[in-house]
Structures are given as C-alpha cells and as structure tokens.
Write a structure and sequence with these properties.
about 25% helix, two-stranded antiparallel ribbon, 2 strands
C-alpha cells in the first residue's frame, strides 16, 4: 500500500477554468439560512469565518 501511494504523482493545484457562479446548486437543507457550501466552509476552516446576515461569511481565504 505504501509503495502504491508513493508512486502516485503529486502536482500543484490548478484552478484554471473554475468559476463559482457555475455552481448554483447549493441548497439550505437544514433551513438555517446557510447553504451547503457555507456549512462546509465554516466546518472545515482553519480560522473560523465571521458569519453575517443571510449567512454571509467573511474572513481570510
């Protein structure tokens, strides 16, 4: 297993072509005012973002 993992190529992240506006499917499944995207950003942030009205998040990126 270690040999197989070591054999995997590692590349720098490439965000060419990414446009957030193409992903309009985010929903507020639990009806708390935050979309799934915002929920994940809050849960996985190294430094928690500040949450404003309508679940607008701000902070370091």
């Amino acid at each position: 297993m270690r040999d197989a993992l070591a054999a995997l190529p590692v590349r720098d992240e490439d965000r060419t072509g990414y446009e957030r506006t193409k992903f309009k499917h985010w929903v507020d499944a639990d009806k708390d005012g935050c979309t799934t995207r915002a929920e994940v950003l809050k849960a996985e942030a190294v430094t928690a973002p500040e949450q404003g009205t309508s679940c607008r998040l701000s902070g370091d990126r």
